[in-house]
């Protein structure tokens, strides 16, 4: 069994790891979604963070807290991007077209 200080240190380390994950996922995942690179994968990595934000903001809801609805819309859009993918005007589509053109030229 862990002693009190060891448990507190473990929880502090866990909180730091979670915070680093949230920052990394939002920065890199947001950039990937905007560019249209690996959109489904980036959306799937961001979904747990946004869904956790929904549960946290639900408890903090007040008449002045409109962040809850922003998180709901973000979660719905991430689900949509995870299902549909990046679309016609994305970097993934451009790279796939370039690869197909290179194969057909040979």
Can you describe what's shown?
- The chain has 106 residues and is mostly helical.
- 81% of the residues lie in helices and 0% in strands.
- It has four helices and no strands.
- It has helices at residues 4-35, 39-59, 67-84, 91-105.
- Helix 1 packs across helix 2 and helix 2 (39-59) packs antiparallel against helix 3 (67-84).
- It is elongated and about 65 Å long.
- The mean pLDDT is 84.
Strand content: under 5%
Tell me how many strands there are.
0
Shape: elongated
Determine the structural class based on helices, strands and strand pairing. Answer: mainly alpha
What's the total helix number?
4
Quote the distance from N terminus to C terminus.
Answer: 65 Å
Question: How do the SSEs run, as a string of H and E?
Answer: HHHH
Mean pLDDT: 84
- Alpha carbon gyration radius: 19 Å
Supply database-style keywords:
single chain, 81% helix, mainly alpha, 106 residues, 4 helices
